[in-house]
Specification:
Distance between the termini: 91 Å
Shape: globular
Length: 508
Amino acid sequence: MENILARSSYQLFLRTTTTRFACANRPFLRYLTQADVPQAKPASTDKADIATQPGLHIRSTASEKNANKESSKNVASATNSGVRMTAAGILLPKDSVARPDADVKSEPAKRKDKNSVKRSASRDETEREERRMHGLGTTMKAWQITRFGDIAGLKLINDAKIPSLNDPFDLLVQIHAASVNPFDVARTRGYGENLIEKMRDASSFLGLPRLPDLTSLFTRKADPFPITLGRDFSGVVVDAGKAVKGFRTGDEVYGVVGPHRQGTFAEYSATSTWCVARKPRTVTHSEAASVPYIACTAWTAVKLVANLPDRGQNTRVLVLGGAGGVGSFAIQYLKTLGVHVTTICGTEGMVLVTELGADDVIDYKTANIESELNIREKYDVIFQASGNEYEYVKKYLKGNLKSFFVTLTYPLLKNFDDHGSVVGLLKSGVSFSTEYFKGLSKGSHTIWAFFTPNGPFLEEVAGLMDQGKIRPVLGKTFPFNELPAAFAQVDSGDTNGKVVVQIKKDSV
């Protein structure tokens, strides 16, 4: 009986050793297969060496037989050096020191690791050579934060690394100008980091050729720093991925960068082709840079109006906060659709919104909004483009199940920050469902509008700008080395038009 147990333990040892060595260079498999096995004390009565035990025939596949032959050689060698296999497990000499499996690598595995390092170094060298050919170095100037706190945390880094093109559809753009948005200011204080961290993890997960530890998408808290802020830009393409079509080196483009990527307050930035479009020919880089973020934020609302049935002059839209960045763009785009636009703004913005084409303007500083809306016809769409609370205006929708309340004020990012991923998502879902069904009971729909990178829409907007139907509303422009002052200007709320940071000399 002892002979049978010893032979069975020997076969189990061979199979386990083969499997663990085969998985040694596959982290995901190793994570799933390696486990701590309790150490069993060898039986004191078992003194026979495994090499002298009679054979026990076990049916094996051809691959297992080959693996067993190789492992038998290793076992025979180990036996000669004093290693013993007993019915209870492996018995090492007293003067030996066991090494963990993670440290044991076969010669082919070691050669594979060395080849992987060589290939990585070769790719890096090839990229450096290509960039030298384009007149690019490996470092750039960039404004970064190394902690969340406030605007004072912004630091100008002179040797930040130029982004790599990790995706075949990526573009590397030399930034000429970038705009400062309220979201950028909020990000210095950590706003939205919980959700954006998950976006970074998901992006890394989807970009890897093999599966990582899936639990990292929900539990890992990686250090995101340093972070380069900035979401939109105008500039020139200096490098393109192998799968890029429609853009080439030297093209002037404008567009946005996803929030999970390093941003645009830098000399260079990488983004995806579906986030950019050709820069309008009739405007400067500074003017072009003021448009992409607000256009991609207003897209949900304006396209909803564009798809309304029987759209025309009788279609009525109310824009709340028309003098702001998103509101001023929405007014202009809505007028290209031929609809009637009413807007609410402060006294200082009334001239601007009238010039942009608003048909009716209500000054919330000098008039009572409810009294003014009571004497006007109701609306098909109300677009809340500002951050103020306007819950009461929902009653001024037509309520025919074809009317919509679209808001940029949604609790998703805040809920993620305050409650974490799972609870934050559930809480946001409950909030949206409550608002939606409450509106539905009164004959209207409630929609949350998000910043949505959209290259084709930016292409359409560029055409409208070249036709003179949409014009950039440019406020104050700051030089690159005064970026903190630009942030302070936006943070104060005292802005008329978009605040832009000029990184290179402007041109049309």
